[in-house]
UniProtKB/TrEMBL annotation:
GO function terms (MF aspect): acetylpyruvate hydrolase activity; metal ion binding
Keywords in alphabetical order: Metal-binding
Pfam families to which the protein is assigned, alphabetical: FAA_hydrolase
Protein name: 2-keto-4-pentenoate hydratase/2-oxohepta-3-ene-1,7-dioic acid hydratase
Fumarylacetoacetase-like C-terminal domain segment(s): 29-226
Keyword Membrane: no
Record has Metal-binding as a keyword: yes
Length: 233
């Protein structure tokens, strides 16, 4: 007999390429404005010499596997895609030096940061948190993980198509803050844990989707994901 008032949620986990095991997910961290061209299309200029990365989070329950149909969420008329390289951690770390950051890496995946853009922009203009715009149910899509323990991914193409038309296309070496720099910086504020995922930022070309749209995202050498946009929830 359970001591819980109701059944706890199941463990959130991702499939691992070539393995029967699954990767249990702890937290979801997202990096904002980490490609210069995307920052520009959002109306910002990033000066790495004077700025540090910034982050937001999503609930682990928002994680959704590739191949899903995402319901068009309530409260928005401007639902956007953002394709991202995802880094999965399998070791703990706190105040990690950039030179040791690679030791925390388990592997990589392709992700989508789905965003209620109108709500995000309204919150930004009022100086309010982005939660309603970013922490969207089903709004953190992720492919299966490619295990590359201890390895920093080589520069790779990243992109996204909507209904077969390419909307985003870049390379991961265009990241303003690199993977080791992000891990090291995050570890100044959090005791990073096995199961943490870091969505490293999106290139330019973000835009809206509508019910019925088909999305395909990829990172060269890592994998692909695909999702459909369903009816309004």
């Amino acid at each position: 007999m359970s001591n819980y008032l109701f059944a706890p949620p199941p463990v959130t986990a991702l499939p691992i390429l070539g393995s029967p095991q699954h990767f249990p997910v702890n937290r979801l961290f997202f990096v904002g404005r980490n490609y210069a061209a995307h920052a520009a299309e959002m109306g910002f200029t990033v000066d790495k010499a004077r700025e540090t990365p910034f982050y937001f989070t999503k609930s682990a329950s928002a994680l959704t596997p590739s191949g899903s149909t995402l319901p068009y969420p309530p409260g928005t008329a401007n639902f956007h895609y953002e394709v991202e390289l995802v880094v999965a951690l399998h070791r703990p770390g706190f105040r990690v030096a950039p030179e040791q950051a690679h030791e925390l890496i388990y592997g990589y995946a392709v992700g989508l940061d789905m965003t209620r853009r109108d709500l995000q922009q309204a919150a930004r203009e009022l100086g309010r948190p982005w939660d309603l715009g970013k922490d969207v149910e089903h709004g953190a899509v992720c492919s299966e993980l490619l295990p590359l323990p201890g390895q920093v991914l080589a520069p790779a193409a990243i992109g996204l198509q909507v209904n077969g038309q390419t909307r985003q296309s870049a390379r991961t070496n265009q990241l303003i803050w690199s993977i080791p720099e992000l891990i090291a910086d995050l570890s100044r504020f959090y005791h990073l844990q096995p199961g943490d995922l870091i969505y490293t930022g999106t290139p330019e070309g973000v835009g809206p989707v509508q019910p019925g749209d088909q999305l395909r995202g990829w990172v060269e050498g890592v994998g692909e994901l695909s999702v459909a946009i369903g009816p309004v929830a």
